[in-house]
C-alpha cells in the first residue's frame, strides 16, 4: 500500500495548497469566510499529508537494512516516495531535454522524501496552519488574494525542500519570491513597498549566482565523466567518485572548479540565510511583513537558505566547503551570532527584536553545519526545525499582541502577565525553547552544534574560538529574550491606550480558541523534540552520514596540492607520513 | 546567373508564396485605402493576409533539398524566422486595431505587412544583396509607421531621428558588405564565409593578407546591424523614438526590427552554417560580440533604472534584452553551431527571441490597450492601482514583467537559463571570458529586477491616482492573451519550443551540400575545429 500511495501523497503535498490557492482566488473578495475555511482546510489537509509521509518515512527507515557500501561506491542521497519512480530511486518525469539527442539528459520533475527534508516539510505544513489561523481576523482587506498568495507560497516552499533536481530546486527557490513579494508589499506595514522590493532584489541577485553555480557543477561533472545529469543524488555520486580518484591533475582541476562553484552557490544561500554582511534585507522584511509573512519568513524561508547549503553546497563542493567554507562561513556565522544578539538587545520594537534574534540563531545553524561533522550537521538540522518552531511562535505571539494593542514598542507595555495570562504563559514557554532550556528542543540543538564546532576546531589543532564565541551567544540570547519578557509581561501593569471605535478595537481579551489552535501544535512539537529528539535524529542519520562522507572525501584529498592552504591544516608532508 | 541558379529560383517560387501573399495584400491595402476608410475592414484584410500566408507556408511543405546557391535558402532557420514574423505580425495587427484612425488604417497595415515580409525574407536571405533589400523592407515601412498615426512634435522628432540614424546604419552596413564582396568577389553568403575562412588561413603579417580588410568588414556589418537590435552604442535613438512613437509602432520597433537585426546577424556570419565555418571565423567576432553584449546589457539596465516614463523604460529594457541575446550569438560564434552541449548558443537566441517577443509585445499590448488618445499611459503613476481597477489585465501584466525579470514558470526564465548555459558550457581558451559574461548577465538580470518590480509595485501595491477608464476594444485584449499564452506555455513546458529552436539551428547538416563541405574540411586547420574535453 505504501509504495503505491506515498508518491501520490508527495504530489498531493504540492498540489493541495495550489488547488487551495486557486479556489481562494476564485472565491472572490466578498466571501471572506469561505476563503478562510478553504485555506484552513487546504493547510490542514497538507499538514495531515506531511505527517503521514513523516510516519511512513520513519517506518521505511526502520525497515531498511543498513547496506555497507561496496568498494568504489559513493554514498548518496536516496529519496523515497518518488513520483514516477523507476527502480533506482529516480524519476522518469521529464521537463526539458538538454545536451542533444545522444548523451543528453533531462531536467526532471524529481521530488521525494529523505532524511534531510522530511522534518522541514512537516515544519512548513504545521506553520502554515498557524499562519492561516493567525491571519483570520487580522487580514480583512483583499483576503482572498492574501490566502491565495499564502498557499502558493506553501507550494513553492515545500517544493524547494522536496526537489531532487538541481534546476527544479532553483525553480521553486525563485518561486518563493513572488508570493512573498505580494504578501509583504500588500499587507505589510508602512514601509512595505520598499521592504518587498529590497527583499526581492537582494534574493534575486544572490540566487542568480546560485544558478550559475548549479549549472557549473552540472557542466563540470559532464566534462569529467561525459555524463550529463541534473539529479542531485547522481551529481553527489559523481562528485564523490571524482574526488576519490588519486590523480593529481584531476584533483587540482576539481578544486579549481569547486572554489568558484562553492562561492557562486553560497552567494544565493548566504543572502537567504542570512549570513551577516548580507542580512540587511531581513529586519526590514520581517518587520514590515504581516504576521503570517513574518512567521513563514523566519520559520521556513530562512531555512531554505540553510537547507540549500546542506543539500547542494556541502555535497557538491565538498573540498571547497572544507577549505573555504569552514573558515569563511564559520567565521561569518560566529560573528552573526554575537552581532545579531547585540542588535536584538538594543531594539525597542518587539518584532525587530525577534527578527534580529533570527540572525543570531541562524548563525548557530550555519556554525553547526560548517563544523562538517556528524554532531554539527545533525545539530544544525535540528536547530533549523527548532528555530522554525520557536521563532515562528514568537512572531505569532508578537502578532497577536499587536492585533490587540496596535503597537510593538517595548516601552508601551508592562506587566501584561496579569492581564493576559495565557499569552504570557506561551510567551515564556517559547522564549525558554528559544533560549535553550534543557527539556525543550532548543537545548538539544545548541548542544549538538556547539559540540560539533568544538570538535571540528579541536581536531584540526586550533583553538576553538568559534565555538567559544558562539557559546556567548547563548548567554546573550537569554539576556535579550528575558529583557523582552521582563519589560512586557512583568513589573507594574502598563497597557497602551487603545483609541478608536469599538468596532475596530474590541476590548482586549486573552487568547481565543483560534489562537490557541495556532500555538498548541507548535508548543507540542517543541516539547516532543525536547524530550525525545531521538525520533528526529534517527530519521536524519543516514542522509547526514551521506553529507559527512562527502565532505570527508573532499578533505581526504591532499591539501598540499590545493591553491588555498590554511592555518591549522596538516602539512602535506605530515599527511604522507601519517599514511 | 548560371543554369543551376535559375533552376533554384524557379524551384523556390513555391516557397516564396507567403511573402508574395503579404506583398500583394500590402499593395491591395495601399490602393484600397484611397477608396474606403474603415479600420475594421483593413484590419481584417491584414489579418486575413497573414493567415493566408500562414496557410501557404504550411501547404508548401518542406523543400526537398536546401540550396544555398540562390538568393534565398529555405532552410529550417528561414522557417523559424518566418513563423516568428507572421505571428508577431498578427499580434501587432491586433494591437494596433483600435489605435488607428479610419483614414490611416489601410496604409498602416500595409506598411506592417511589408515589414513582416522583410523579417521573413531576412531570415531566408543567402545573398548579400537579398539581405540588404530585406532589411530595407523592414526599415522603410517603419519610417511611415512612426509618423503615420500621430502628427505631433514628439512623433515627428521620433520619425526623423529614426530615419536619419537608420539611413546611417544602412550606409555602414553597405560599406561592410562592399568589403565582404571585395573579399569574396561574390555576393553569395556561402562564398563570403569561404572567403572569410581563407582570410584566416593566410598569415596576418604577410603582405597579401586580407585580414585587416575582413576585420573592417566584420566590424562595419556588426555596427550596421547593431542599430537594428538597438545594441550599445547604437541605441541612442531607442528611448526618444519609443517615447515619441505611437505604442504599437514602438512595439514593432522593439520586436520586428530587432528580430530582423538578429536574423541578419545570424545570416551574414553564418552561425547556422556548418560548425566548421563558424569555428573558422572565431577570430575577432566572439570578442566583438562579447564586448557588445556586456556593454549593451549593463548600460541598458542601468539607464532603465533612471527612467520614469514607461516607454523610455521599455526602450532601455529592450536594449538590455538585446544584450542578453548577444550572449548567445557570442557563444555561437565561439563554439560554432555544432557545440556538443545543446541547447547551443544559437538555439538559445532563437528561443529567447520568441520569449522576448511574447513578453515585450505583451507589455506594449497592455499599454496600448489601457491607453487612449485622450489619456495615454505614459508615466508609471498611470498604472497605479491597476490590480484594483483592472484585475485581469494587471495579472497578465505581472506575468509579462515576471517573465522579463526571468522568474520561473515563464518563457523568460528558460530563455535566460539556456543563454547562461551556453555561456558556461563554452570551452577552450576563451572559456574564462564567457564565464565572466555569465556572471555579468546574472548581475544584470538582478538589476533589471529592480525596475520591473517598480512597475509591478505600482500596479499592485499603490492606489490609483486617477483610475484608467475601462477599455472595450477586444482585438487588443486578444493580442495580450496571445502573448500571455506564448509566455506561459513555454514557461511551463519549454521542451517543445526548445526542440523547434534546435531544429532551426541545424540548417546545413542535411546532405544537401556535400560538395561544399568536402573542400572546406580540407582547408580548415585542426586548431579551428571545435574541440571537446581537455
Please give the count of helices of chain A: 21
Q: Please summarize the sheet with the most strands of chain B.
A: none
Find the structural class of chain A using helix and strand composition: mainly alpha
- Count of β-strands of chain A: 2
Residue windows where pLDDT falls under 50 for at least 5 positions of chain B? 509-534
Question: How does the overall form of chain A come out from the CA principal axes?
Answer: globular
Chart the SSEs and their pairings.
The complex is a heterodimer of chains A (579) and B (534).
Chain A: H1 2-27, H2 32-63, E1 94-98, E2 105-108, H3 115-134, H4 143-162, H5 166-175, H6 177-187, H7 192-225, H8 232-244, H9 248-272, H10 281-288, H11 291-316, H12 318-345, H13 350-369, H14 374-405, H15 416-419, H16 421-435, H17 441-459, H18 465-489, H19 513-531, H20 534-556, H21 572-578
Antiparallel strand pairs in A: 1-2
Helix pairs in contact in A: 1-2, 1-4, 2-3, 2-4, 3-4, 3-11, 3-14, 3-19, 4-5, 4-6, 4-11, 5-7, 6-7, 7-8, 7-9, 7-10, 8-11, 8-20, 9-11, 9-12, 10-11, 10-13, 11-12, 11-13, 11-14, 11-20, 12-13, 12-18, 12-20, 13-14, 13-17, 13-18, 14-16, 14-17, 14-19, 14-20, 16-18, 17-18, 17-19
Chain B: H1 3-12, H2 17-32, H3 39-60, H4 76-96, H5 102-124, H6 128-147, H7 153-184, H8 189-201, H9 211-229, H10 236-244, H11 247-268, H12 275-280, H13 285-305, H14 310-335, H15 345-370, H16 386-389, H17 391-405, H18 411-425, H19 431-461, H20 474-492, H21 495-505, H22 514-523
Helix pairs in contact in B: 2-3, 2-5, 3-4, 3-5, 4-5, 4-11, 4-15, 4-20, 4-21, 5-6, 5-11, 6-7, 6-11, 7-8, 7-9, 7-10, 9-11, 10-14, 11-14, 11-15, 13-14, 13-19, 14-15, 14-18, 14-19, 15-17, 15-18, 15-20, 15-21, 17-19, 17-20, 18-19, 18-20
Amino acid at each position: 500500500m505504501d509504495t503505491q500511495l506515498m508518491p501520490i501523497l508527495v504530489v498531493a503535498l504540492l498540489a493541495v495548497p495550489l488547488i487551495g490557492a486557486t479556489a481562494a482566488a476564485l472565491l472572490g473578495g466578498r466571501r471572506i469566510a469561505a476563503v478562510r475555511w478553504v485555506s484552513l482546510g487546504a493547510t490542514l489537509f497538507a499538514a495531515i499529508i506531511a505527517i503521514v509521509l513523516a510516519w511512513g518515512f520513519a517506518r521505511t527507515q526502520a525497515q531498511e537494512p543498513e547496506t555497507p557500501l561496496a568498494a568504489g561506491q559513493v554514498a548518496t542521497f536516496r529519496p523515497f516516495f518518488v513520483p514516477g519512480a523507476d527502480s533506482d530511486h529516480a524519476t522518469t518525469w521529464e521537463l526539458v531535454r538538454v545536451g542533444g539527442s545522444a548523451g543528453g539528459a533531462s531536467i526532471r520533475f524529481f521530488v521525494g522524501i529523505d532524511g534531510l527534508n522530511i522534518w522541514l516539510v512537516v515544519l512548513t505544513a504545521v506553520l502554515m496552519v498557524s499562519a492561516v489561523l493567525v491571519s483570520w481576523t487580522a487580514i480583512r482587506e483583499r483576503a482572498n488574494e492574501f490566502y491565495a498568495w499564502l498557499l502558493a507560497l506553501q507550494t513553492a516552499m515545500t517544493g524547494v525542500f522536496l526537489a531532487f533536481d538541481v534546476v527544479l530546486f532553483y525553480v521553486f527557490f525563485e518561486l518563493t519570491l513572488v508570493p512573498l513579494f505580494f504578501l509583504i508589499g500588500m499587507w505589510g506595514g508602512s514601509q512595505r513597498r520598499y521592504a518587498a522590493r529590497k527583499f526581492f532584489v537582494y534574493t534575486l541577485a544572490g540566487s542568480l549566482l546560485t544558478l550559475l553555480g548549479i549549472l557549473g557543477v552540472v557542466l563540470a561533472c559532464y566534462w569529467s565523466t561525459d555524463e550529463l545529469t541534473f539529479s542531485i543524488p547522481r551529481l553527489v555520486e559523481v562528485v564523490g567518485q571524482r574526488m576519490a580518484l588519486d590523480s593529481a591533475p584531476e584533483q587540482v582541476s576539481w578544486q579549481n572548479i569547486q572554489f568558484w562553484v562553492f562561492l557562486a552557490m553560497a552567494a544565493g544561500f548566504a543572502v537567504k540565510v542570512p549570513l551577516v554582511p548580507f542580512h540587511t534585507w531581513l529586519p526590514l522584511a520581517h518587520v514590515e511583513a504581516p504576521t503570517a509573512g513574518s512567521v513563514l519568513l523566519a520559520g521556513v524561508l530562512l531555512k531554505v537558505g540553510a537547507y540549500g547549503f546542506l543539500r547542494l553546497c556541502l555535497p557538491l563542493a565538498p573540498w571547497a566547503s572544507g577549505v573555504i567554507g569552514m573558515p569563511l562561513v564559520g567565521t561569518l556565522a560566529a560573528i552573526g551570532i554575537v552581532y545579531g544578539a547585540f542588535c536584538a538587545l538594543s531594539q525597542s520594537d518587539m518584532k525587530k527584536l525577534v527578527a534580529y534574534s533570527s540572525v543570531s540563531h541562524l548563525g548557530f545553524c550555519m556554525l553547526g553545519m560548517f563544523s562538517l561533522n556528524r554532531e554539527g550537521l545533525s545539530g544544525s538540522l535540528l536547530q533549523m526545525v527548532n528555530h522554525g518552531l520557536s521563532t515562528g511562535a514568537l512572531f505569532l505571539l508578537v502578532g497577536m499582541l499587536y492585533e490587540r494593542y496596535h503597537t510593538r514598542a517595548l516601552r508601551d507595555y508592562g506587566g501584561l502577565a496579569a492581564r493576559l495570562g495565557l499569552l504570557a504563559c506561551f510567551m515564556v514557554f517559547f522564549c525558554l525553547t528559544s533560549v535553550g532550556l534543557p527539556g525543550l528542543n532548543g537545548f538539544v540543538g545548541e548542544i549538538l552544534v556547539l559540540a560539533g564546532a568544538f570538535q571540528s576546531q579541536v581536531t584540526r589543532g586550533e583553538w576553538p574560538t568559534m565555538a567559544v564565541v558562539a557559546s556567548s551567544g547563548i548567554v546573550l540570547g537569554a539576556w535579550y529574550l528575558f529583557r523582552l519578557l521582563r519589560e512586557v509581561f512583568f513589573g507594574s501593569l502598563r497597557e497602551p491606550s487603545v483609541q478608536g471605535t469599538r468596532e475596530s478595537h474590541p476590548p482586549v481579551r486573552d487568547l481565543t480558541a483560534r489562537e490557541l489552535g495556532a500555538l498548541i501544535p507548535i508548543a507540542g512539537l517543541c516539547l516532543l523534540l525536547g524530550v525525545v529528539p531521538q525520533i528526529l535524529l534517527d530519521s536524519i542519520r543516514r542522509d547526514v552520514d551521506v553529507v559527512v562522507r562527502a565532505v570527508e572525501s573532499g578533505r581526504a584529498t591532499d591539501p598540499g596540492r590545493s591553491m588555498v592552504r590554511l592555518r591549522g591544516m596538516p602539512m602535506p608532508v605530515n599527511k604522507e607520513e601519517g599514511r | 546567373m548560371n543554369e543551376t541558379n535559375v533552376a533554384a529560383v524557379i524551384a523556390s517560387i513555391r516557397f516564396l508564396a507567403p511573402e508574395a501573399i503579404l506583398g500583394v495584400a500590402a499593395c491591395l491595402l495601399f490602393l484600397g485605402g484611397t477608396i474606403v476608410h474603415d479600420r475594421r475592414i483593413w484590419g481584417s484584410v491584414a489579418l486575413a493576409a497573414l493567415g493566408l500566408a500562414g496557410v501557404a507556408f504550411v501547404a508548401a511543405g518542406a523543400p526537398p533539398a536546401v540550396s544555398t546557391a540562390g538568393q534565398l535558402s529555405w532552410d529550417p532557420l528561414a522557417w523559424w524566422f518566418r513563423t516568428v514574423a507572421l505571428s508577431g505580425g498578427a499580434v501587432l495587427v491586433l494591437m494596433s486595431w483600435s489605435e488607428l484612425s479610419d483614414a490611416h488604417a489601410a496604409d498602416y497595415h500595409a506598411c506592417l505587412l511589408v515589414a513582416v515580409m522583410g523579417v521573413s525574407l531576412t531570415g531566408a536571405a543567402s545573398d548579400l544583396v537579398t539581405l540588404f533589400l530585406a532589411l530595407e523592407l523592414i526599415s522603410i515601412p517603419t519610417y511611415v509607421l512612426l509618423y503615420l498615426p500621430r502628427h505631433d512634435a514628439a512623433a515627428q522628432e521620433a520619425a526623423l531621428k529614426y530615419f536619419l540614424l537608420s539611413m546611417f546604419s544602412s550606409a555602414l552596413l553597405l560599406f561592410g558588405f562592399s568589403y565582404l564582396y571585395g573579399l569574396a568577389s561574390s555576393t553569395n553568403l556561402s562564398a563570403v564565409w569561404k572567403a572569410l575562412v581563407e582570410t584566416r588561413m593566410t598569415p596576418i603579417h604577410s603582405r597579401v593578407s586580407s585580414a585587416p580588410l575582413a576585420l573592417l568588414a566584420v566590424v562595419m556589418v556588426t555596427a550596421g546591424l547593431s542599430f537594428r537590435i538597438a545594441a550599445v552604442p547604437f541605441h541612442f535613438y531607442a528611448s526618444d523614438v519609443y517615447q515619441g512613437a505611437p505604442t504599437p509602432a514602438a512595439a514593432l520597433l522593439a520586436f520586428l526590427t530587432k528580430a530582423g537585426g538578429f536574423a541578419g546577424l545570424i545570416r551574414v556570419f553564418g552561425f547556422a552554417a556548418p560548425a566548421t565555418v563558424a569555428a573558422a571565423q572565431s577570430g575577432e567576432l566572439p570578442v566583438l560580440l562579447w564586448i557588445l553584449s556586456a556593454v549593451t546589457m549593463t548600460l541598458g539596465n542601468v539607464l532603465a533604472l533612471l527612467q520614469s516614463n514607461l516607454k523610455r523604460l521599455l526602450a532601455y529594457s529592450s536594449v538590455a534584452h538585446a544584450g542578453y541575446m548577444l550572449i548567445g550569438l557570442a557563444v555561437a560564434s565561439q563554439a560554432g553551431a555544432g557545440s556538443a552541449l545543446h541547447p547551443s548558443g544559437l538555439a538559445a537566441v532563437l528561443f529567447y527571441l520568441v520569449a522576448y517577443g511574447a513578453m515585450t509585445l505583451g507589455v506594449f499590448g497592455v499599454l496600448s490597450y489601457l491607453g487612449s488618445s485622450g489619456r495615454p499611459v505614459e508615466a508609471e503613476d498611470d498604472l497605479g492601482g491597476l490590480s484594483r481597477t483592472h484585475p485581469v489585465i494587471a495579472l497578465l501584466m505581472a506575468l509579462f514583467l515576471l517573465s522579463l525579470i526571468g522568474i520561473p514558470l515563464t518563457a523568460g526564465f528558460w530563455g535566460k537559463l539556456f543563454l547562461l548555459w551556453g555561456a558556461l558550457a563554452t570551452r577552450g581558451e576563451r572559456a574564462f571570458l564567457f564565464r565572466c559574461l555569465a556572471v555579468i548577465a546574472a548581475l544584470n538580470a538582478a538589476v533589471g529586477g529592480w525596475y520591473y518590480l517598480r512597475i509591478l509595485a505600482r500596479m499592485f501595491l499603490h492606489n490609483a491616482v486617477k483610475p484608467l477608464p475601462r477599455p472595450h476594444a477586444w482585438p487588443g485584449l486578444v493580442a495580450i492573451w496571445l502573448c500571455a499564452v506564448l509566455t506561459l506555455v513555454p514557461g511551463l513546458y519549454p521542451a517543445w519550443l526548445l526542440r523547434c529552436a534546435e531544429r532551426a539551428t541545424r540548417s546545413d547538416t542535411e546532405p544537401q551540400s556535400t560538395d561544399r563541405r568536402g573542400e572546406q574540411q580540407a582547408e580548415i586547420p585542426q586548431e579551428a575545429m571545435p574541440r571537446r574535453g581537455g
